Amino acid sequence: MPSSLTSLFWISLVAVAAPMLAGLVPRKLVPEVVLLLALGVVVGPFGWELAADDEAIGLLRELGLAMLFLLAGYEVELKELTGRGGRRALATWLACLCLAFVVTLLLGVSDVIDSEIALAIALTSTALGTLLPMLKDNDLLKTPIGAAVMRHGAYGELGPIVAIAVLLGSRGPIASLVVLLAFAAIAVVLSLPPRRIRRETSRLLRLIRLGSETTGQTTVRLTILLLVTLIVIATDFELDTVLAAFAAGFILRLALPGGDDRLETKLDGIAFGLLIPVFFVTSGMAIDPRAIADNPVAFVVILIAILACRGAPVFFVTRFTSPAPEHRLNTRDSLSVGLFAATGLPIIVAVTSVSVSAGQMTTENASLLVGAGAATVLLCPLLATLLLARTRSPSHEPLQG
């Protein structure tokens, strides 16, 4: 078995090679994430056995997952979630979950995969953290299309996170819900000090600002402290890391409603420079290609189920249910939003990890789910980008204000 340092060398090499290879593809049609996953398979235990996911690498992996969701939570505007469009996105996700349970019952009858609850949750997820770089690279983040993706993506991450805590918790749904509410109350309490400091001109605030541009890096250290604190609390409550990370992102956004370019640049450097690539490479290392090759029908069925349970409802809502017809997206743009919404991987990885650890899902079926999630990361943004490239509408123009 390779040592931790040897494994980290190969993971670092893959992390450097992936963006370079992605840059060779015209119009960046192959996302870097897909190459990180694919090369992770190559160097991992199911490939050339050059790297292993031991305890040390596993800690980096968990931190990478946490940073991915922290950045996703930070990008979400609270008013977008609570406004009319946000409420519509929440209703859409709940409809997706109901549809997913129906589909999983049908798949269960056909013995396609075990752990129906985990599968249903996975079918409703959206990889908002994975989509953010793609939306930024294509200048879509501040457009109506980007706003729709952000709303549906936020609930496509938050909804499954809550569902994991409630439906897959070891305590049972009611007790898990009580624990979840207790964690939410603690998160609200933790959000109060940074919001108060921001409103006041205090010596503490001046010290934080001065230290942010020195070797003290106070703003970065406070962010990491917030993240680790919530992870520790979530672990003590037997909740998933992604819930803590998403909550940390929300709190950070409440503390910095107007954003902070310098802090964001530093966090991006830590996250995308080291931790997030480790997460995606090790996720690829956990994929067993033989499990997919031995059961290609199940793989295709799961991929279609993701498109049907998540992509189709989002397409319908964005195309036909906007309050004013002149504000509705056209068919191509709505298809693009639906495809973006059907892009899922981090939540799928989280769901399968919880289910495998609890003995509710086999590693073979976990490989099928993660492989299908990886396929959506490759195919869905690619198809969405191609659709958007063939048309130019007001939905592509930046939002005013």
Q: What would you say this structure looks like, in words?
A:
- By secondary structure, this protein is mainly α.
- The protein has a single domain (4-396), classed as Na+/H+ antiporter like fold, CATH 1.20.1530.20.
- It is 76% helix and 0% strand.
- It starts with a helix and ends in a 12-residue tail after the last helix.
In summary, what is this structure?
The protein is mainly α and 401 residues long.
Rg estimate, integer Å: 20 Å
| Classification by helices and strands | mainly alpha
The helicity comes to over 70%
What CATH architecture do you see? Up-down Bundle
Q: What count of domains describes the coordinates?
A: 1
Order of helices and strands: HHHHHHHHHHHHHHHHHH
Using the alpha-carbon principal axes, give the shape: globular
Number of helices: 18
- How widely separated are the two ends? 55 Å
CATH level-1 class: Mainly Alpha
- How many strand units? 0
CATH overall fold name: Na+/H+ antiporter like fold
Strand residues, percent:
under 5%
Biggest pleated sheet: none
Q: Which parts are unreliable, with pLDDT below 50 for 5 consecutive residues or more?
A: none
